[in-house]
Amino acid sequence: MDALxxxxxxxxxNDWANRQVIAAVEAVGPAQFRASYGASSFDSLxxxxxxxxxAEMVWLHRWQHGPARMAQPFDEQRIELAExxxxxxxxxxxxxxxxxxxxxxxxxxxxxxxxxxxxQYAQPLWRIILHPVNHGTHHRSEVADMLSRSGARAPWLxxxxxxxxxxAERSTPAM
Length: 175
Fold this sequence. Notes:
Layout: H1 3-28, H2 30-34, H3 45-65, H4 81-101, H5 104-108, E1 110-114, E2 120-124, H6 125-128, H7 131-149, H8 159-164, H9 167-170
Antiparallel strand pairs: 1-2
Helix pairs in contact: 1-4, 1-7, 3-4, 3-7
């Protein structure tokens, strides 16, 4: 196993965990999708999931295009679950293509980007490429908490659980 295998494995887990969360949120329905739960980074399941997707999209954009700002893909405050799920599928396809084309040499390349606060950074790709996976873990745990508070069953998202699944089990539920 090399660094590229580890990165791709982390993103396989990330995709699986995101699909688990989307499926759990679909089960609670549209009213709970927009309900305000407070006490999290974002007040609703919808806003939290929209932020999580946009953050992944922003990082992919930075890796591919450097400091150029990404156009807002949708209104995070108004997106509906079906639209979010479709946007996630498109993003996952683009991210998968990026990760499959990635080389060890690419990992050493400096990525120049601007943070959402406008601060300029330059870092090698290998130092920042796993940030979206870590970021996703944080926000998926917030979604799990909101689901639990709504009375719904929150999915179990431990990485070891993912590693114990067969390839067929890893591909369900589909977004």
